[in-house]
Amino acid sequence: MGSLAVASKGRFQTGISTDINATFVKPGGKMGDSVSVLGEVVSMGMLSSTLLLMSGKTLAYTRVELRDPKTNDVLAYGSHTKFVKMGIDSEDNVEFNESGEEVIKGTLPSDA
Description:
This is Thioesterase domain-containing protein. The chain has helices at 2-7, 49-55; strands spanning 16-24, 36-44, 59-67, 74-83, 95-96, 103-105. By secondary structure, the chain is mostly beta strands. The strands form 2 sheets. Strands 1-4-3-2 form a 4-stranded antiparallel β-sheet. The relative contact order is 0.28.
């Protein structure tokens, strides 16, 4: 889920995992029940390699929560830290509008 959160910021290459943490809080129902999942990028390095190298920001920090959709109780949560320096200037990266629903720079892969 952490990689998907990084990809949602337009990164074609989502980096290398440097730390993954998961904490299970309580059981989440039985087989066939639904679970709500939220993944987000908490912080990520700059968008260009020049700024990235100057600032030393080469990591992306993501957070994930799994919740019971009926009660909104947290079932599990976790974090995923990724080294994202490589691919920072990839021509395959895209840029989304503020809502994240429309590509404003670059092209999505044809199978997306």
